[in-house]
Amino acid sequence: MIFGEDDAQPEPQPGQPHRQQVRLDASQMETVYANSFALASSPDEITVYLGCNSPLPGMKQPTVKISHRMVLIPQNAKRLAQVLQQTVKAYEDRFGPIELPPPPRRQQG
């Protein structure tokens, strides 16, 4: 996989930043399934916790097993958010809207 400019792209004009081509090595990549996530942040980083929620029937309080943590600088977190937004829009343009259930109602008690 290669991310960056195509070889056919013209050279950047003076004063424009040059985007460096990056080659990804996926030879030791692991794939994980995550259907749950949590976020935390500090002034220097944003942390995404990924996990899997596999509740058994009748469980009152299922446990999400956190399997991976991704730590990002805020600028890369914003880039990721922008790319995810573009990707979801392209998905919906192709396959139709993604419906989200309404948030659960808080129980008064």
Number of helices: 1
In the predicted model, the low-confidence regions spanning at least 5 consecutive residues are: none
The total beta strand count reads: 5
Given the C-alpha coordinates, what overall shape results? extended
> How can the largest sheet be summarized?
3 strands, antiparallel
Can you walk through the features of this model?
The N and C termini lie far apart (53 Å). Strands 3-4-5 form a three-stranded antiparallel β-sheet. Strands 1-2 form a two-stranded antiparallel sheet. The model has no long low-confidence stretch (mean pLDDT 86). A hairpin with a 4-residue loop joins strand 3 (36-41) and strand 4. With 109 residues, the protein is of the alpha+beta class. The protein has a domain at 29-95. It is 20% helix and 25% strand. The longest helix has 22 residues, at 74-95. The protein is extended, with a radius of gyration of 20 Å.
Summarize the structure.
The chain has one helix at residues 74-95; strands at 2-3, 22-23, 36-41, 46-53, 64-72.
Question: Helix and strand layout, with pairings?
Answer:
Elements lengths: L1 E2 L18 E2 L12 E6 L4 E8 L10 E9 L1 H22 L14
Antiparallel strand pairs: 1-2, 3-4, 4-5
Keywords summarizing the entry:
109 residues; alpha+beta; three-stranded antiparallel beta sheet; two-stranded antiparallel ribbon; 20% helix
